[in-house]
Automatic annotation (TrEMBL):
Keywords attached to this entry: Flavoprotein, FMN, NADP
Source organism phylogeny: Eukaryota, Viridiplantae, Streptophyta, Embryophyta, Tracheophyta
The protein's required cofactors: FMN
Domain NADH:flavin oxidoreductase/NADH oxidase N-terminal residue range list: 31-112
Domain of life of the organism encoding this protein: Eukaryota
Family as reported in the entry's similarity comment: Belongs to the NADH:flavin oxidoreductase/NADH oxidase family.
Name of the featured protein: NADH:flavin oxidoreductase/NADH oxidase N-terminal domain-containing protein
């Protein structure tokens, strides 16, 4: 189940998102839901990140199964989130679109392709999802 409890888009925000998140994950625990995928509160807009006092830590501690986080993670902070037990897994949405070999790039600490947001929601079969170079192509170019 993927949730963005801290989102406040178009009036969809909650007056106490942390309490809501805790209630949800405790309810999910009753059904032994395999995983919970939550979005960090640090996302201000689709393109901007900001640090904020809210956190998923208490929600992570309350969920019994696999906890996945997303929200603008890079290699270092994603690795740190797992190492500090703030998450079991980290999702890399936009970066994965632009880097079809993202796991290898993260492993090697290789440079990432920059994503092109203008191609995210178009149906062009040539431009966008399929035209980003693989690491081997960028090294030999």
């Amino acid at each position: 189940m993927r949730l963005s409890i801290f989102a406040n888009y178009l009036g969809s925000g909650d007056s106490n998102p942390e309490a809501l998140g805790l209630y949800i994950v405790k309810s999910l625990n009753k059904y032994d839901i395999l995983y919970s995928h939550m979005i960090e509160p640090r996302m201000k807009t689709l393109a901007e990140m900001a640090e904020c006092p809210q956190s998923l830590v208490s929600i992570r501690k309350s969920f019994n199964n696999t906890f996945i986080v997303a929200g603008g993670y890079g290699r270092e902070d994603g690795t740190k989130a797992v190492a500090e037990n703030r998450a079991d897994l980290v999702a890399y949405g936009r970066q994965f679109l632009a880097n079809p070999d993202l796991p290898k790039r993260l492993e090697l600490n290789a440079p990432l392709n920059k994503y092109n947001r203008n191609t995210f929601y178009i149906s062009d079969p040539v431009v966008g999802y399929t035209d980003y170079p693989f690491l081997d192509e960028t090294i030999t170019a």
